[in-house]
Amino acid sequence: MQQISSVNNKLVKELAKLNKKKYREDTGLYIIEGFHLFEEALKANRRYQYLLGTEDALAKAEEDYDVDLSAKNVILINKAIARHLSSTKNSQEIFMVLKISQPKEFPFNYGKWVLLDNLADPGNVGTIIRTADAAGFDGVILSPESVDLYNPKTQRAMQGSQFHIDLIISDLVDAINQFESNGIPVYASMLDKTAKKLPDFEPVPQLGLVIGNEAHGVSDFIAKLSDEKLYIPIKGQAESLNAAVAAGIMIYHFA
Q1: What is the pLDDT of residues 122-168, one digit of tens each?
Q2: Which residues span the domain enclosing 221?
Q3: pLDDT digit string (tens) for 2-44?
Q4: pLDDT per position as a tens digit, 211-252
Q5: Is the pTM value of this prediction over 0.85?
Q6: Residue where a domain stops, chosen among 99, 125, 140
Q7: Does residue 6 sit in the same domain as residue 85?
Q8: Are 150 and 100 in contact (CB under 8 A)?
Q9: How many domains does the chain have?
Q10: Quick one: 91 and 182 in the same domain?
Q11: Residue 105 falls within a domain, yes or no?
Q12: 80 and 33 together in one domain
């Protein structure tokens, strides 16, 4: 086990940069924080580049998860370094550095999929992925313009679901074309005059469900490619629903 005691250490400085998208892209690495994500990564047999923790955190990792503290890639840090690396106010003082292994195109597979069309809010994206996982969907396809999957806020919102279902960053046009050429319907969530009410749709064994950008909705071109447009009836006076809430209602409708 290595030990680092200064926030000015070269490795610490490099790992702290992983909270920024550009550095994640440059290095092909990302960092997760906290025991829940740490546990989910271990369950998924993910190999880590580094495991960093304070004395108490590493003792817990050894006792509860059989982590070999003698390994060279396990690093003992102090609380000051933990605060420096943390993206939260109250860090659990355990960090895992993982390789990004993200497909850049959709390798077609039958099932139920959520397609995210340029979503901008990391909390929404993470919540939708977590909901899709809970509902038994097969995966989520994110347009390249959607928020970064490895954003710390997205990681926290996913709560480990990133290790349970397929997550693909792909051009949605290509994905939709593959769905439709294989007889899988694609439904777009839209507030549109031509849209149909969600209750009018029966659950189907396989589908692609498109969720649009929080401010602008589903893009016109993606909407035209979809088989049907649907919306959730609003009974009160709210103009619309939060993207993650609307996605959750629709996902469970089709689950």
Answers
A1: 999 999 999 999 999 999 999 999 999 999 999 999 999 999 999 99
A2: 112-254
A3: 999 999 999 999 999 999 999 999 999 999 999 999 999 999 9
A4: 999 999 999 999 999 999 999 999 999 988 999 999 999 999
A5: yes
A6: 99
A7: yes
A8: yes
A9: 2
A10: no
A11: no
A12: yes
Cα angle for residues 215, 221, 226 (degrees, 5° grid): 100
Q: Identify which of 120, 102, 113, 106 has the alpha carbon closest to the alpha carbon of residue 244.
A: 120
In a domain, residue 107? The reply is: no
What is the model's pLDDT at position 103?
78
Q: Which two structure tokens, joined as six digits, stand for 3? A: 């030990």
Q: What is the per-residue burial (b if ≥16 Cβ within 10 Å, else e) of 5-18?
A: eebeeeebeebbeb
Q: Whole-angstrom Cα distance, residue 85 to residue 15?
A: 7
Which amino acid would we find at residue 176? I
Whether residue 41 lies inside any domain: the answer is yes
Q: What span, in angstroms and rounded, lies between the C-alpha atoms of 2 and 156?
A: 27
